[in-house]
Amino acid sequence: MIRAEETDGVKAREPLSGGAYEIGMMFMRCNRRISLSIPVCVQWTCALPFLRESVLPFIDRETGSRIPFPGMEDGMNSGTEVGIQSLPSKHSVDETVERLKNILQAKGVTVFTIVDHSGEAQKVGMTMPPTKLVIFGNPKAGTPLMLAAPSSAIDLPLKILVAEDGSGRVSVSWNDAGYLKNRHGFPAELNGNIAVVEAIAAGAAQ
Asked: How far apart are CA 21 and CA 44, in angstroms?
């Protein structure tokens, strides 16, 4: 056993023999049981960042393969954000947003609002590169998702971010459909209700 104690306001654990900790974790996911046991030599006091680093990545004892946190296995691009897909746009932010609006209108999809983040920043005397968030959806597609997994309402309606970086490059970004399915656990057969976002984003970027 590892006993937690209070040391100078920081919770520390009593070291095992040899100055090592035995950290045990049980991780349940996808009806599979994965356990992780990592012996680490540390000092008497140990900060939380150590704990965070010590559990990355998860290791499957049977295969020895790395197991990412929930949602990280799908929808990952070369960036660092979990579940976000991005494509470069050939157009300015405003042009890309207009193209996006036209595509959505042609598909009969409602544009609920466009959040002009950079415009709002300017109103309070701050500057940021052009950044707009387009929020859109279709109740016929979204409602079954929310009925099957009520928590998905936090990520619906769908969103596409159109933003320019510090170098003037414009990109379109969206939540990956596979990530949303894993996050909220709605049935795979409903994935098509939101998978269309990728084609819409790609069309606006071209």
From this structure: 10
If you write DSSP's letter for every residue of 45-67 in order, what string do you get? S--HHHHHHHT-SEE-TTT--EE
Q: Tell me the C-alpha distance between 69 and 73, whole Å.
A: 8
Q: Answer yes or no: are the C-beta atoms of 146 and 156 closer than 8 Å.
A: yes
Per-residue pLDDT, 133 = 98
51 neighbors 59 (Cβ within 8 angstroms)? no
Token reading at 172: 């379109």
User: Which pair of tokens denotes residue 200?
Assistant: 């819409």
Query: Going from the N-terminus, what domains does the chain have, and what CATH number goes with each?
Result: 4-67 (no CATH), 84-205 (3.30.310.70)
* pTM assigned to the model: 0.62
pLDDT of 65 higher than 50: no
Identify residue 127 by its one-letter amino acid code: T
Of the pLDDT bands very low, low, confident and very high (cuts 50, 70, 90), residue 46 is very low
Mean pLDDT over 72-86 rounds to: 59
Residue 47: what residue type? Answer: A
